[in-house]
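Here is one chain, start to finish.
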Amino acid sequence: MPQSYLDPFFNGKSVALIGASANPNKWGFRILANIVAGKFTGSIYPINPRGGTLFGLEIFPSLNKIPQSVDLAVITIPAEKVAMALEECALKGIRSVVVISSGFSETGEQGRALEKQLTLLAKDKGLHFIGPNTMGIFSASTSLHALMPPVQPLRGGVSYVSQSGNVGVQMLGWGMERGVGFSKFVSSGTEGNIPIENYLEYFASDPDTKVILAYLEGLKDGKRFLEVSQKTALAKPIILFKGGKTDAGSLAAQSHSGALASRYSLFKAACHQVGIVEVETTDGLLDCTSAFLHNPLPRGKRIAVLTRGGGWGVVAADACREWGLELPDLPDRVINQLNQVLPPYWSHGNPIDMAATLNPEALPRCLEALIKEDCFDGIIAQGVDARRKSLLMAEKLKKENLLKEVELEESDPASSSEVQLVLDLMDTYKKPVVMVSGLSSIARTVISGDREAVIFPTPERGVRAMAKLCLYGAFLQGR
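Its structure:
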């Protein structure tokens, strides 16, 4: 497996926290609390010269006092003491280290000298470290929450590397709101030892990873990054957000992560060439991740837009044009099929405006008629939860004793036959159906039986997700 030395970080059976503290205002307390609260499956060894106990765990005065072997060390002590801690790790036989400590290349010349010392020491001693200046790592397989903030990510098929700790853990938090689960997360820090492309290569061969997420500010070896990314993208999608696109952002990146941002126009073109799916906004990271997790890839960019109201169809059509998606005309046979279930005044074109019909057969019949057609590579279906709106209103009236005679159905959208229908159609025809709702301001994951689907809040965000699916599909077809 490429970069197999990363295994102990994500699959280790024991972890030592160097700099453990009983002071809640220190990271040595908070990170240890997260590891304990996260129910790490292995052994935990807090390290502090004072000894004692914390969270029911024995605190060891030094690494060499631990009678067992240790797979992973996490360091939270001041920068000037980290080199000595790495020496102690090497003596203990620990080859995998997470350096939380800041005060290195992100601070200037003196910090760069300290970081170079760590890099040379690691090479000499045969160990690898994440960071420095990292917010930590997460691994679902071992339930390791070696993170600075108290985030408890959902478990899932996304692996994520971020050169910003804050942007990284924020996405973990957003994932909890949207139902996006993670397999692995690493805040790579200033990358004094392990560059971002090594994580990409590792995730590419990881069986638990379905989609790779990345936040990037700068590169130390752009050529190798692109080579690794191209090989990785042939196996799994890489969804990337680039910070430091402007002169101001580039300057901020240097003071934040010590990264030198490349000229953005060249970087953008290179990403497209090697198959990286770049998103333009931070909310696009999880939107597009959800789309890739729950939709098959389209074979082209010919899209049918289905909507319950004309205005949202216009918005979706505009967005499709902006993203380079095509809206083919409806074949006569499809028009004839839709005439049977829609009012006479429906749009008779693409977008398909169902004219707010209340016919429960309209949406299923329209979806199936469209997805069968070879002239469409995917569908954007708006208003898939209109049924839920009616049920919620009926439920409210019933609670107020104004609708006693009506037998209400289950109002959970996840159990809706419409969502199940979409999943079944995607399974049968291997085409994406991007669902859009108006009930929430965030993209959300819903569960139907033992499967999951994503519903987007606006046509623009649904169209963007479809466009990224098309872009990656075209890359794979052209390989």
